[in-house]
Amino acid sequence: MAQFMSSLRARLNKRAAYNRTVREIRAMPRDVALDLDIYPGDAEKIARKAVYGI
Fold it and tell me: 7, 8, 21, 29: which could join 47 in a potential S-S bond, CB 3.0 to 4.6 Å?
């Protein structure tokens, strides 16, 4: 049971990090995003790779 809770907590933390990353990318000023070669429409893809590695 303890391992289940630990696994669940880790998954919830990753999901929170994913949501936070998507929100920050979308909130980024367009000129800054373009300077960093980031397209805001790819926020989910970028966050998924950053948090989950896929």
Answer: 21
